[in-house]
Amino acid sequence: MQAAALPRPHRDDVRIAVGGLLGGLALWGFGLGMNTGRLFDGSWLLVPLVAMAALELLRRTRPRFAVVAGTLVLIADQFTRGSLATVLMYTDLMYAAALYGTPAAARRLPVSTGLVTVAVTLGFVAWLRQPEAILIGVATGLVSFGPAATGLLVRGHREAAQAERLRAEQTALLAEMDRAQAVTAERARMARELHDMVANHLSAIAIHSTAALSLDDQDTTREALTTIRENSVEGLAEMRRLIGILRDAGEDEEPAAAPTLAGLGALVEQSRTNGLDVRLAVSGAVTGLPAPVELAAYRIVQESLTNALKHAGPGRVTVAVDRSRERIEVRVDSPHGDRGGPRAPGSGAGLVGMRERAALLGGTFEAGPQEAGPQDGGTWRVHAALPLHTEGGDPT
């Protein structure tokens, strides 16, 4: 079985190893050593020097092995003249073991080296019985406990910086998600507003233009063209209001005010002009309402009348607005059945928009056919209940 290949050393580790080796060779060349009268003299100090430089290649990839083997090499170096470069490279191995080792080993290393430092100090003081023996303990701490504690401290700072970077990335991601949601909500608001403002006029234009084209009658054509012109002018006015809102207006120009329930009479009259038989019934005061609620109620009535213009059968359309202490209810009933005249195509976006407006205010919305009575063909009912005290969003 082939042994696993050693990991490739990092280029910085190679630089450290080469630098330490060259420094040790320079000190040896000048005849500088740390010890005198040792067992192995002369060039024997090169053996631990080369071994320690080789272990520097593993300081990042195999930190635990490097520091254990480095400790044995440092002990062997004490039997030679000793090299300052060997000691300095050992301190780097101890630092790297705390910095690149496992989290558990990094936490244990300062504790174990601290205990060793205390034990060495006490042991040499008891053996030599001289104050200078404390210096041996200090030297032990400088080459073991000091680098290990420094490595653990640097590791903690790096991990804290990494955690901050991750937190910043998460914050940026959440901010981007919020921005995307805000853009989506704004686009939905614009779509609802555009649909509700323009659909009524365009539907009337489509129906009356179809009637003018299909009926060869001069009076009918003139009446249809008059209605088409009125709806075109009003549709353009609504479009200008929306554009003013989107452009946030200028200093000399303000967008027209949003419609209110006080304008329901004009809305119903316009629907009658477009050909609908509409009856309006209002119960309770419709003034002083929260602006989002008032706009949502108006738009629901407007879209319901638009749908009735496009799809309702012959008969009367009733609009009922009932304001109570806690909420305002809107109910629009239109004949449900086949119609003989021209019809405008529908996309279903109107019902979606009305449902969204009610949901944003915490209200309820229902739309669908009702059971047919004994003398009619059925009724399509739109019913919305909007609370007056709500913390919902902007229904536009």
Q: How would you describe this protein?
A:
The protein is an alpha+beta fold. It folds into two domains: 11-170, no CATH class; 260-396, Histidine kinase-like ATPase, C-terminal domain (Heat Shock Protein 90). Helix content is 61%, strand content 10%. The chain has ten helices and five strands. It has helices at 11-29, 46-56, 63-77, 84-100, 103-128, 133-214, 218-246, 264-273, 291-311, 349-360, and strands at 277-283, 316-323, 327-335, 364-370, 379-387. A five-stranded mixed sheet has the order 1-2-3-5-4, with helices on one face. Helix 8 (264-273) runs parallel beside helix 9 (291-311). The longest helix is centred in the middle third of the chain and has 82 residues, at 133-214. The model is unreliable at 249-255 (pLDDT under 50).
SSE order: HHHHHHHHEHEEHEE
> Quick check: average pLDDT?
82
- Tell me the helix content: 55-70%
Query: Nearest-angstrom radius of gyration?
Result: 44 Å
| Proportion of residues in extended strands | 5-15%
Number of DSSP helical runs = 10
Gross geometry: rod-shaped
Query: Regarding quaternary structure, how should these chains be classified?
Result: single chain
Low-confidence parts, pLDDT < 50 over ≥5 residues?
249-255
Number of strands: 5
Please list the strands of the largest sheet in the order they lie side by side: 1-2-3-5-4
Q: Span between N and C termini?
A: 73 Å
Largest sheet: 5 strands, mixed
Question: Pairing-aware structural class of the strands and helices?
Answer: alpha+beta
Total tally of structural domains: 2
